[in-house]
Specification:
By secondary structure, the protein is α/β, with parallel strands linked by helices. The chain has helices at residues 42-60, 88-96, 100-117, 133-145, 174-180, 220-232, 246-261, 292-297, 302-310, 322-344, 353-366, 371-383, 388-402, 419-431, 435-447, and strands at 7-10, 15-18, 26-31, 64-69, 149-152, 155-158, 195-200, 216-218, 236-242, 266-272, 275-277, 280-281, 318-320, 451-455, 458-462. Strands 4-3-9-10 form a four-stranded parallel beta sheet, sandwiched between helices. Strands 5-6-7-8 form a four-stranded antiparallel beta sheet. A three-stranded mixed beta sheet has the order 12-11-13.
């Protein structure tokens, strides 16, 4: 079967390029996942939507996919650039009076629950970093033997000068790193930009493994090189992450993986734009973040956030606001109601329009996951004169990519206690043309959270 051409923006090449899977028809993807020391916020979820949207789009176009998303349960340092600071996993363990393993298990479960709320489908593999320490040790030993790493007092550093291509992803050169260095450089490093592959354990360290260089624990960057190549091999198609992963994390991954293998490992690097709140990046460290469960507690459908994210190009920053979320919440609910109405309508003969509309949708998602273009097409279809059943069929099909649960509008609403009786009384008041009473009952229902719309077919309600 001839599959359609797909073009994706490669961060390394700085342009959109055709996707050429290593195995015909199968796309293998590695995605940087959560560090499970705290709840994921909606900014994190936007990053994790990228590989979900990628997989959904590719599968809609006829490809098969295999996704790996790591779970970082070993922790990493508060300043990843220069390997200084306190380990986040251990900070949480101390504050919550739990072991690092208990912290990791609890927040991994919460992460999987949260991604489900925004219809991010589970990956095929969720490797835990702690299970791959032996593989990390093998890679570090190979890097030392190849002259790419050196040992100082039980800590192993990557020597960025040994890898001339270092900086090709982020356009950071060793000279720029030196110029941008803040504070006193670590005297044990040959260059301030050298990063830690293995760190010697200090006193009271809770997570410690034996190594040829003494007890210690792995650096953050070596974890993804080990897990991605252990599961997907030393060549795979796509690596995803947030824009904040480009440097230092993905730059370090390239240096590690390519120094060991001697060739390019990742064909395409894809990075999602950051979520902004009041002009600043949403981040745990800044404290300006929301968990998706909080949005639900405020009365929003979690998929309103997904709808909001689909309005922007995945590579662009996205501004988050309560007003924008409220608008998205209304839009997704109205879209579901439209689909439910069209599904219940009479089904006529399918029209030639369907193929043309679907071809336009496929072209949008095949062009670097252009969801703003796809969502504009959704709005155009809704306003069009296309036969209702065809509209419903197209939107339901496209929802395999959009993930907005457009089928949910046809389900019965759960009403607060007493609402059904008020609705029945209001129906009688309208039949008796007692519009003053009808309006009073509508206000009472609104106070209960039930909106009533009067149509030619009678009352319609929504929460």
């Amino acid at each position: 079967m001839n599959l359609p051409s797909v073009r994706l923006y490669d961060t390394l090449a700085r342009r959109k390029e055709p996707l050429h899977p290593l195995e015909q028809g199968v796309v293998r993807i590695y995605s940087c996942g959560p560090t499970v020391y705290r709840y994921a916020h909606v900014g994190n979820l936007r990053t994790f939507m990228l590989p979900d949207l990628l997989r959904r789009s590719l599968e809609y176009l006829g490809y098969r996919t295999e996704q790996v998303m790591n779970i970082t349960d070993v922790g990493h340092l508060t300043d990843d650039t220069f390997d200084r600071g306190e380990d986040k996993m251990l900070v949480s363990a101390r504050l919550e009076k739990k072991s690092p393993e208990e912290i990791a298990a609890a927040y991994t479960e919460a992460f999987l629950d949260d991604i489900g709320l925004v219809n991010i489908r589970p990956a095929a593999h969720y490797p835990r970093a702690s299970d791959y320490v032996p593989r990390m040790l093998e890679l570090i030993e190979a890097l030392i033997q190849g002259g790419h790493a050196y040992v100082v007092d039980g800590t192993v550093y990557y020597d960025i000068a040994s890898f001339p291509a270092y900086g090709k992803l982020s356009r950071n050169t060793p000279g720029k790193l030196m110029a941008g260095h803040r504070g006193e450089p670590d005297p044990r490093k040959r260059h301030p930009g050298d990063f830690t592959l293995w760190k010697a354990a200090g006193e009271n360290r809770l997570q410690v493994w034996d190594s040829p260089w003494g007890p210690g624990f792995p650096g953050w960057h070596i974890e993804c090189s080990a897990m991605s190549m252990a599961i997907l091999g030393d060549r795979f198609d796509i690596h995803t992450g947030g824009a904040d992963n480009v440097f230092p994390h993905h730059e370090a991954e390239i240096a590690q993986s390519e120094a060991v293998t001697g060739h390019r490992v990742v064909s395409v690097w894809m990075h999602g734009g950051l979520l902004m709140l009041s002009g600043s990046r949403m981040a745990k460290s800044a404290g300006n973040f929301f968990r998706v469960t909080e949005l639900r507690e405020q009365g929003f459908d979690p998929l309103a956030f997904r709808y909001l994210a689909l309005q922007a190009k995945y590579r662009a920053p996205l501004n988050f606001s309560s007003e924008g979320l409220a608008g998205a919440d209304r839009a997704v609910r109205q879209l579901r109601e439209r689909v439910a109405d069209w599904v219940r309508g009479e089904r006529g003969a399918d029209t030639p329009d369907r193929e043309e509309w679907d071809s336009r949708f496929r072209a949008a998602i095949a062009d670097d996951l252009d969801t703003p273009r796809a969502m504009a097409l959704v709005a155009e279809l809704v306003r069009s004169g296309v036969e209702p059943a065809t509209k419903a069929g197209l939107l339901t099909a496209w929802d395999r990519v959009l993930g907005l649960d457009l089928h949910r509008g046809g389900k019965e609403l759960s009403l607060p206690d007493g609402a059904s009786a008020l609705l029945a009384e209001r129906e009688q008041a309208r039949e008796a043309k007692d519009f003053e009473r009808s309006d009073q009952l509508r206000d009472q229902l609104a106070a209960m959270g039930v909106a009533v719309l009067d149509t030619a077919e009678g009352q319609r309600i929504k929460r």
